[in-house]
Amino acid sequence: MNTAKLAGVVVGGVISVLLVLVILKFINKDSSLRAKYDERQHIVRGSAYRIAFWTAVILLALYSFIDAFKIDIPIKRHVIPFIIIMISVLVHTSYAILNDGYFGMNESRKRAMVMFVLIGLLNFGISILEMNRGQMIEEGKLSSPFMNLICGISFVIIGIVLFIKSRISKDDLDEEEE
C-alpha cells in the first residue's frame, strides 16, 4: 500500500471514530456516550449477540467451504467477510429491535432514525458515484465499493425492521386500550 493511500485510510479512520462519538452524543437524550439498559434489555441483547455470533460462524463455515472447493463467485474475496459481518450485524440489530433491546432508556429513537436514514443515504450516494465511475466491478467481480451498497441496504433493512416494530407496538397499544 502506498503512503498516500495509507494516510487516507488512517485519516478516514480517525474521522470515522470522531463521527461515531458525535453521533452517539446526538442520539442519547442525556448527551452521554453510553446507552442505559434495564435488566430485561441486557438479556435480550445477550441473546441477540449469541444469535449473531452463530450466524457469523455458519456463514464463515460456508465461505470456507466455497474457498476450499474453489467455487467461483462474482465477488472479490476481501468483500465476502464484510458481507458476513453485515449480515451478523443485521441479525443482531433486528432481533434486538423486535424484542425491545436495541434502544437504551436514554436514547432517542427519532434521532437514531434520522442518523440511520442519513448514513444509509450517504452509503447509497457513494455507491452511485462508484457505479458511475465504473469502479464497482473489477475483473468481472464486485469490488470494495460494493461494501457501501451493502451498508446502504443494511440501513434500509434496519429502517424496515424499525417500522415493523413501531406498527407492532402501536397495534399492541391499540389492543390494550380496547
Can you tell me about this structure?
By secondary structure, the protein is mainly α. It has two domains: 1-33; 35-177, no CATH class. The protein is built from five helices and two strands, in the order ααααββα. Strands 1-2 form a two-stranded antiparallel ribbon. A hairpin with a 2-residue loop joins strand 1 and strand 2. Helix 2 runs antiparallel to helix 3 and helix 4 runs antiparallel to helix 5 (146-177). The longest helix is centred in the C-terminal third of the chain and has 32 residues, at 146-177. The model has no long low-confidence stretch (mean pLDDT 88).
Tally of structural domains: 2
Helix-and-strand structural type? mainly alpha
What is the terminal separation in angstroms? 65 Å
The major sheet is characterized as:
2 strands, antiparallel
Strand elements, count: 2
Radius of gyration: 19 Å
- What's the rounded overall pLDDT mean? 88
Q: Tally the helices: what do you get?
A: 5
Q: Spell the H/E element sequence.
A: HHHHEEH
